[in-house]
Specification:
With 81 residues, the protein is mainly alpha-helical. It is built from 3 helices and no strands.
Length: 81
């Protein structure tokens, strides 16, 4: 009998942990969504600028994914606004 009790207790604990993790994930997602909304409101041209940077830099070879040049270009473009 004791074994069954501990097993069901473990399952209950696991369920609680899973629920807590889900709640934490939901909270994190909500925070991320809020941050994204703030960024979009702050930089309405953000998407257009990014596309423009890619269109300008990619053909010239100045843009190599992962070397940070896109980030630098984005930053400069955003600072100009």
């Amino acid at each position: 009998m004791r074994l069954q009790v501990t097993q069901s207790q473990q399952q209950a604990d696991l369920l609680q942990q899973q629920q807590q993790q889900q709640q934490q994930q939901q909270q994190q997602q909500q925070q991320q969504q809020q941050q994204q909304q703030q960024q979009q409101e702050h930089y309405p041209h953000h998407q257009h600028l990014m596309l423009a940077c890619v269109a300008v830099l990619a053909p010239s070879g100045a843009l190599v994914p992962g070397d940070g040049s896109l980030c630098a270009a984005m930053h400069l473009a955003l600072m100009a606004y």
